[in-house]
Design brief:
Elements lengths: L1 E7 L1 H5 L3 H11 L2 E8 L3 H7 L9 H8 L4 E8 L2 H9 L12 H5 L8 E3 L3 H11 L13 H4 L2
Antiparallel strand pairs: 1-3, 1-4, 2-3
The protein binds 2'-deoxyadenosine-5'-diphosphate and magnesium ion.
The site of 2'-deoxyadenosine-5'-diphosphate has 9 residues, from loops.
């Protein structure tokens, strides 16, 4: 089992797309083990996006992610990180195929709706940033045997 951190970003929340986006991960079969509604502050945002510090888009990225509430969640499945990244699409909506979240719902890279961890190391780091261990629920679904082999 693998875990990944997903953020339904402020533009998606403002556009009323929380349900649409969560439903895509749910329908795909990923199991939700943590979820919260929060406004990310600058300190947390700068830690989350530390790898992008110094890049041209860094300041606008922090302004965007802190501008309004987000939904942050941890999803679980075999290969959850790659599954979620493919469900999300490419970084730029214009490069994202129809059927992906960014390909169906997005226009601009600075309003790309959703974040997903890009590696096992990032996932561990990001989950630890956003969730205390007791906020994550270890559980199984009755349907798991029809989703996971
Ligand atoms: P991803 O969100 O697909 O993992 P990333 O980690 O490379 O992409 O970048 C984080 C966010 O920063 C991305 O979702 C949008 C923004 N961003 C990335 N590259 C950008 C660029 N060239 N111009 C503007 N914003 C960019
Ligand atoms: Mg990234």
């Amino acid at each position: 089992m693998e875990r990944t951190l997903i953020i339904v970003k402020p533009d998606a929340v403002q556009r009323g797309l929380i349900g649409e986006i969560v439903a895509r991960f749910e329908r795909r079969g990923l199991r939700i083990v943590g979820m919260k509604f929060m406004q990310i502050d600058r300190q947390l945002a700068s830690r989350h996006y530390a790898e992008h510090e110094g890049k041209g888009f860094y300041e606008s990225l922090l302004a965007y992610i802190t501008s309004a509430p987000s939904v942050v969640m941890v999803l679980e499945a075999p290969n959850a990180i790659e599954l979620a990244r493919r469900t999300i699409g490419a970084t730029k909506p214009i490069d994202s195929p129809p059927g992906s979240i960014r390909g169906d719902l997005g226009v601009e890279v600075g309003r790309n709706l959703v974040h997903g961890s890009d590696s096992a190391e990032s996932a561990a780091r990001e989950i630890d940033l956003f969730f205390a261990p007791e906020e994550l629920v270890n559980w199984s679904r009755d349907v798991d045997r029809w989703v996971f082999e």
